[in-house]
Amino acid sequence: xxxxxxxxxxxxxxxxxxxxxxxxxxSKLGNRVLIVPTGSFVSGGHYEELEGCLKSAGIESICxxxxxxxxxxxxxxxxxxxxxxxxxxxIGIGGGVSMDIAKAxxxxxxxxxxxxxxxxxxxxxxxxxxxxPVVTIPTNPMSxxxxxxxxxxxxxxxxxxxxxxxCKAEFTWLNPEYMLSLPDKVLTYGQMTAFVQLSINYxxxxxxxxxxxxxxxxxxxxLEGLRRSLADKNDVDARGTLLLNSALSLSGINDLGREPExxxxxxxxFAQRYLEINYPQALTGLFPYWLKHIxxxxxxxxxxxxxxxxxxxxxxxxKDEEELLSEVLQALRKLYQEFGIAFTYGExxxxxxxxxxLVELIDSFGPMPCNIMPVNSEKLAEIIEDAxxxxxx
Length: 393
Known about the structure:
With 393 residues, this protein is an alpha/beta fold. The chain contains 15 helices and 8 strands. The radius of gyration is 21 Å and the shape is globular.
């Protein structure tokens, strides 16, 4: 287990009846806030309720129009509002897009001397720099943005997704009632995205027994909570469990003493741009084929065997490596089919069949280290093309 420092640093307020507590906590941060809401939070009438409660406490709220993409232009708009209106805190409400924009705005508003793009591309470090206080209210938990410091932002001109750690929230409010209006498809893709993110970190080099056992519990919680939520749309406890699981499991606790894997995230962003699909579709569709390649390349298969047995319920005994891999991919296919999500990119997007363009997209990102196997642009393009074709052999 490698050396580490773990600082959760985010207060969690849980429950539907916590509005007074939340408003009181916001009042400690300032009397003028910028709210970055998701569209469903606004259309569902929740924004008006929150705005009214803040107003009653003497807190002025300014709304950054609900956004669907975490574009740098949206971040810069929010930064300008904060500077011009002397905003004292930022509240991100929704999924990863809204929360990532809120954190980026809060950081950028205190560091206006440098274009935000320079931080996002690691040209300049964010370490030790100040930011406005941030509050997160997740309504579609999948990314862990409510409790971690990371953001992912899309550059408008190139479509390239870039990101870095900027700041953690002062507190997050987990209100399970805000999840009740989520369509089944959105809920399912969100939770399976969280499942895949945990799986990617789990299937990595370096061992940490405690972190691995936490991750196993988190993945099992996702599958159980998702099944319960789909069976009963009014099961508040099931959705609340998913909310809490996201806040805890994706805050870094499942990485303690391990080196997280980086490659799948830029890889899915290439798939997004190449195939014109969204983040949950790109990451979940990539995972089976990423698993295939890293399993074959890894010299330490013990963690794979544990994942196959504990998470996918596959008996590993008496099978050669390729036979076992085939059975595992079939088990993963059945899991995807159970929840109605695509096992291949070919199910949700047309294949451009532009290999050279795909390689150019990958090359544009620059060098990408991989902990498990050597990679180059051709190898990464092969994984995406396997995912398009559904090539499991």
